[in-house]
Design a protein that fits this description.
putative fmn-dependent nitroreductase like fold, elongated, alpha+beta, 2 helices, 22% helix
């Protein structure tokens, strides 16, 4: 579901991020959610301020993110 939400957001010109490492119990309480609902993930949506490009991992096997001279953010996957 989260991936579908993000794909829909991209179609609307938005960017997003899925965050799984959150204090779920604290967020549950902060949002005053009933006990039958559980926080699984947090999805952050907004207007992207940078360009991100997914690159193939090169022969070195490095997965280090980097920026080029035009400030494009490269993410090896």
């Amino acid at each position: 579901m989260a991936q579908t939400i993000l794909l829909g957001a991209v179609e609307q010109g938005l960017g997003g991020c899925i965050i799984a490492s959150v204090k779920k119990e604290n967020l549950q309480e902060l949002l005053n959610l009933p006990v039958y609902l559980k926080v699984a993930l947090v999805i952050v949506l907004g207007k992207p301020i940078e360009k991100v490009v997914i690159d193939d991992i090169d022969d070195t096997g490095s997965v280090i993110y980097w920026r080029d001279s035009e400030q494009v953010h490269h993410v090896p996957k």
